[in-house]
Amino acid sequence: MRRESPTEAGRPRARVRMLPTRTHSNLGDNVHGAVTLALVDIALFAASHQFGSLNAGHSVTLDLSTQFVGAGRIGEPMDAVVELVRETGRLIFLRGLVVQGAGDAHIVLSFAGTIRKATKR
Fewest 10 Å CB contacts: which of 5, 21, 67, 93? Predict the structure, then answer.
């Protein structure tokens, strides 16, 4: 994972990368959708930690909305680029894209998700 430059509006962004192999493929020889969804869910938490929004504790995904736009390609790095939309005392709102290719030219899916922070005890 790496920190990206902020958006034009100043919101922080992070990039989480995986390299899909044949073990991640579906019968159509593309990245299986469930693998892409797992990347997104992991990226939501990794990015939130990078942004300083999560501490140790049991946080959970409240919702995750995705829109598949294109097929993920095997053997090519696949990145989830996550943007922090808003943070409250208990919630973190995020959105982003899963992309491949030079300049992030190939969009695999777009997403929006909400994390509920761990309860302080």
Answer: 5
